[in-house]
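TASK: fixed-backbone design
INPUT:
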């Protein structure tokens, strides 16, 4: 530490005139812009399979029939997929959406270094999702058992179909956050939306330090109703125990 401090004190301070400072600032800005924009020259068609494998292993969802990938670096570096299918398993019957605005936020360091796609999070906007008994069961399994990276959905619509394929429930979703907080070791699903023309907030929480305990709450406005449920999963007995409050 003493030698390092001595080295710092012996460095002569740079003396720059105004012109040199301006040139330095422009050089830094140009370097940053070049670093952020160069991936726009890459051919992302060859990354289709890699994206499919990454989203399956890290988000436990299937992104299929990918087309029209563009690179954008505002507000953060990401790939914009304009068209793709979202499935909850390999089965075509598990398709829940035809994605039109999927943003895949990536690591530029990993892209430059290893030419690999390293996904940080997914963001979906203005998309319709269609669920039925089968796909809802698949999502519930994923919710309870899978380790995932963050997924964000905004300004979208959730539809629920009955056995006849008729839409029986529509829920506009203003924002959905689905993630794991590795500091607190908690998995969370948070939704703000509208159901039966009433605003609601839904929170689902599971702590991996006590994975058999699940907490969920549903808060409606106008009428003002709050539903909370604490569930204890009984895997060996194949039944669950809950404490429901309204």
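OUTPUT:
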């Amino acid at each position: 530490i003493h030698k390092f401090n001595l080295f710092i004190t012996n460095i002569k301070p740079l003396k720059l005139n105004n012109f040199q400072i301006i040139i330095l600032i422009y050089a830094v800005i140009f370097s940053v812009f070049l670093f952020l924009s160069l991936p726009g020259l890459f051919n992302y068609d060859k990354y289709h399979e890699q994206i499919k494998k990454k989203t399956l292993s890290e988000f436990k969802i299937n992104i299929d029939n990918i087309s029209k990938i563009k690179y954008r670096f505002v507000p953060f570096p990401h790939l914009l997929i304009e068209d793709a299918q979202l499935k909850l398993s390999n089965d075509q019957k598990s398709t829940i959406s035809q994605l039109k605005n999927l943003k895949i936020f990536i690591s530029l360091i990993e892209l430059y270094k290893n030419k690999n796609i390293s996904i940080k999070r997914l963001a979906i906007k203005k998309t319709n999702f269609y669920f039925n008994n089968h796909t809802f069961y698949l999502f519930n399994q994923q919710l309870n058992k899978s380790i995932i990276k963050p997924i964000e959905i905004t300004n979208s619509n959730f539809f629920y179909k009955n056995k006849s394929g008729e839409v029986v429930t529509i829920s506009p979703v203003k924002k959905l956050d689905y993630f794991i907080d590795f500091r607190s070791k908690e998995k969370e699903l948070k939704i703000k939306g509208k159901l039966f023309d009433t605003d609601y907030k839904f929170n689902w929480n599971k702590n991996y330090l006590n994975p058999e305990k699940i907490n969920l709450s549903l808060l409606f406005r106008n009428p003002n109703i709050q539903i909370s449920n604490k569930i204890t999963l009984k895997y060996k007995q194949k039944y669950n125990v809950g404490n429901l409050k309204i």
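COMMENT: The mean pLDDT is 85.
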